[in-house]
Amino acid sequence: MACAWLTASSLACRLVNPLSAVNGGVWVGATPVTWRRIDSVTAREKEATNCTGSPIPSEATPSWFQLHPRLVDLIFIIAIFSYNVPIQFGAVPRHLWLGTGLVVSIGLCAPGLMRRQRPVTTYVVIQLVAVAQSLLGISLLVADAMLLLAIYTLASRKGWWLSGGTP
């Protein structure tokens, strides 16, 4: 178990610790984190093995969702908007123009495209559109879920103090 945390260098596993009889073979003066850093810099092998010969899993590769966050946001926003389009016609009061619901839906969904870069701006724009929606008498829409997403993004990226929570 003394070398089990070494990552790539088989040579490091063969090094002899002069105090191995005293401390049970554990390296003195170097932490596993230090050895991981040294190994990751000095030996970038495709298939690393530890002292026992079993393969060491490589660093976690990012998922497709992590590699393409803007595309994921776009797909999510298109899904919400397209689900919202048939519903919004019934949510608009009769005294308003029928396209008002479509304008409100666009106003709720479109700012979501910039939520990762500008979370405060996104939240303010979506909040203003939601207030206008309430003042116009338009009932709740599916696109109002974008307000919850904007609050989540604001809290996760800017801290609780800005999103209305307590520190």
Question: Can you describe this structure?
Answer:
The protein is mostly helical and 167 residues long. The chain has 2 domains: 59 residues, no CATH class; 99 residues. The chain contains 9 helices and no strands.
Summary tags:
signal; mainly alpha
Q: Could you report the average pLDDT, rounded to the nearest whole number?
A: 74
How many domains? 2
Helix proportion: 55-70%
Q: Calculate the terminal CA-CA distance, rounded to whole Å.
A: 43 Å
Short recap of the structure:
The chain has helices at 10-14, 20-23, 32-42, 64-67, 69-91, 100-109, 119-136, 145-158, 160-163. It contains nine helices and no strands.
Topology:
Blueprint lengths: L9 H5 L5 H4 L8 H11 L21 H4 L1 H23 L8 H10 L9 H18 L8 H14 L1 H4 L4
Helix pairs in contact: 5-6, 6-7, 7-8
